[in-house]
Specification:
Shape: elongated
Distance between the termini: 7 Å
Largest sheet: 8 strands, mixed
Strand content: 25-35%
Oligomer: single chain
Number of strands: 20
Radius of gyration: 29 Å
Length: 506
RNA sequence: GGGCGCGUAGCUCAGGCGGUAGAGCAACGGCCUUUUAAGCCGUGGGUCGCAGGUUCGAAUCCUGCCGCGCUCACCA
């Protein structure tokens, strides 16, 4: 037992735990069957009051207001909070003795009839009280009041580090946080709904891959002991989903985690969720139509509207979205006419924007760098940027008319890359050459260049039909729809550096 | 990785011109059988992130480290 004051608080609760057992009460029983959620009782009060039916409610004790031989308290369950009234006369000596040994944070179940207090507060008149779980650590509940109909929270549990590290407390104490993750679930459900009704098949492909591919990023590496070989956590599921198109599944999607060994910031977490979908016989124009419709469908389903406010900024997801070829965008926002610019001109332009560019960088990379510098931040409303340079798009098909470009688009919303799509490259000879080109980039020191995957090439050599593919970042979509300022607010357990000495109690 | 800021009781925060710590909530004891940020009386609780340095003396000033946040650069 430690010497910290926190351990004193724990010690007090452990003593109560013993006292509860001394009363012959098991503090960790097995089950309880509620009849109602808190909010249901409030919603159907009149009927419950008229019938006199007994209700059973379970939840976490979040506040008590004792009055000697009686007490009011609030329970919080998954849907809201409810006042209960515990009175010695009604519950009897034993249950009231138990009541005195309860703490904020304990889970309890109660049964009794509903009633309204003198001030009109809907409450449960407790007849029986059972302890469902004793909490031995203090729950840092804030105080709340209802002022002018608004919920006002005092001393809210707000330390970001603690909120992320102990997300369960964040969820238990901040209903708004629960709402974000309920919304996240609704987003994923809506995606499935949208795709399933359009005949897409949901599949699962390997997370542990002998080679990583499908994106330009550094991977996490692990090791298989029995096979004694390295394995990579996938940076993308793209190459496996395309194999399924080769196999004739025609319309497939996967919602899953990708892992990229890169920096962490407000819009990047080392593991993040992507929706990737592939459709045979389709091209990137079809993917644009699907993407617009999907975003609008999800927003409507989840928020009831295709317009939203993100961090004070109005964003309208209603289709159709503007489609701007990358070179046009660079001219419009950066004033640079790429077609008439020499490589040296582009290099000079990059310098003007004050960012480092590899001395030997080829034209496509220069164009992409200029785009990122002068266009991306401007793209607040949803926008398709189309027709990327071949050099930065090793898995995309060459543009049917535009030289040196591919049939690729990315969606930008709020200045973020929100999605990425191509007419998929299905020419195995061209694909092999692209991989070869990536290798030269890698040999020049680009450790994010893609690696040659012979097994994938073999699949392409067996024939992949023309295919459109689309990848959508799930976390960023949740951020937008939930108005979450950081990706950490859209991921239940965001990555945190390990911290030693969080607690000396054990 | 660079810059800026933060780290004090279980939680939310004061103190910060150097003289070894305060409040509210939570907790504990007492009173209270319709309260709702319940109330009243009383009590306990702190290696002031960690390690050095300056000083007679450091929560306070300096340096390094750790963690977190914001931001810039790179990546979705």
């Amino acid at each position: 037992m430690g010497q910290t004051p926190e351990s004193q608080l724990i010690e007090q609760r452990l003593q109560k735990l013993d006292a509860i057992r001394d009363l012959g009460i098991e503090p960790y029983p097995y089950r309880f069957e509620p009849t109602h959620y808190s909010v249901d009782i409030v919603a159907s009060f009149d009927a419950l009051n008229a019938s006199g039916d007994e209700v059973r409610v379970a939840g976490r004790l979040i506040v008590t207001r004792g009055h000697g031989k009686a007490a009011f308290a609030d329970l919080r369950d998954a849907k809201g909070r409810l006042q209960i009234y515990v009175r010695l006369d009604n519950v009897g000596d034993d249950a009231f003795a138990l009541w005195k040994l309860l703490d904020i944070g304990d889970f309890i179940g109660v049964s009794g009839q509903v009633f309204k207090t003198r001030t009109g507060q809907i409450s449960v008149q407790v007849q029986t009280l059972v302890l469902l779980t004793k909490a031995i650590r203090p729950l840092p509940v804030p105080k709340e009041e209802i002022r002018d109909g608004e919920r006002v929270v005092h001393d809210q549990f707000s330390d970001k580090e603690l909120r992320y590290r102990r997300r369960y407390l964040d969820l238990a104490l901040n209903p708004d946080v629960q709402a974000v993750f309920r919304k996240r679930s609704a987003v994923v459900s809506a995606m499935r709904d949208f795709l399933d009704t359009r005949g897409f098949l949901e599949v699962e492909t390997p997370v542990l891959q002998p080679l990583y591919g499908g994106a330009s990023a550094r991977p996490f590496v692990t090791h298989h002991n029995v096979l004694d070989m390295p394995l990579y956590l996938r940076i993308s599921d793209e190459l496996y989903l395309k194999r399924l198109i080769v196999g004739g599944l025609e319309k497939v999607y996967e919602i899953g985690k990708n892992f990229r060994n890169e920096g962490i910031d407000r819009t990047h977490n080392p593991e993040f969720s992507m929706l990737e979908l592939y459709q045979a016989y389709a091209d990137y124009s079809d993917m644009m139509a699907i993407a617009e419709a999907l975003y609008a469908f999800v927003a409507e389903k989840v928020n009831g509207s295709t317009t939203l406010e993100y961090q004070g900024r109005e964003i309208d997801l209603s289709p159709p979205w503007p489609r701007i070829p990358m070179l046009d965008a660079i001219e419009r926002y950066g004033g640079i006419d790429v077609a008439r610019s020499s490589d040296a001109d582009l290099r000079a332009a990059c310098k003007r924007f004050d960012f480092d560019i590899e001395p030997g960088a080829e034209r496509g990379l220069l164009i992409n760098a200029l785009f990122e510098a002068c266009v991306e931040p401007e793209l607040i409303q949803p926008t398709f940027i189309t027709d990327y340079p071949i050099a930065v798009s090793p898995l995309a098909k060459r543009h049917r008319t535009k030289k040196d470009l591919t049939e690729r688009f990315e969606i930008f919303i709020n200045g973020w890359e929100a999605a990425n799509a191509f007419s998929e490259l299905n020419d195995p000879i061209d694909q092999r050459q692209r991989f070869a080109h990536q290798k030269t980039l890698r040999d020049r020191g680009d450790d994010e260049a893609q690696v040659l995957d012979e097994d994938f090439l073999m699949a392409l050599e067996h024939g992949m039909p023309p295919t459109g593919g689309l990848g959508i970042g799930v976390d960023r979509l949740v951020m937008l729809l939930a108005d979450a300022p950081s990706i950490r607010d859209a991921i239940l357990f965001p990555h945190m550096r390990p911290k030693e000495g969080l607690d000396d109690y054990g």
